[in-house]
Write a structure and sequence with these properties.
Largest sheet: 3 strands, antiparallel
Number of helices: 2
Structural class: alpha+beta
């Protein structure tokens, strides 16, 4: 599908196991990079302890595409539902 939700010749189906499709809640994310990769760590932090839930490795090109897609989606979300308060950050 393209950005207007019209099928195109490069459409494909992505399948997911039920446990993956359910998703996981993360309240902490950390991003790091090396010359050839970006690492996204998603964790759940409660009190003094935390659990790494998922580590995603991306090429720099894909990380940039993800950044653009996330920015566009946040802008659309805020247009529809109002400004998102970032809240406090963990140091």
């Amino acid at each position: 599908m393209d950005r207007n939700n019209k099928p195109d010749s490069s459409s494909f189906v992505i399948k997911a196991e039920d446990e993956v499709a359910k998703g996981r809640f993360s309240n902490f994310a950390q991003v790091s990079s090396a010359p050839d990769s970006f690492v996204l760590d998603f964790s759940f932090v409660q009190g003094p302890a935390g659990w790494l839930l998922s580590r995603i490795l991306l090429s720099p090109q894909h990380a940039k595409r993800l950044s653009v897609a996330l920015s566009e989606t946040i802008a659309k979300h805020e247009e529809r539902f109002g400004k998102i308060d970032s809240g406090p950050t963990l140091q």
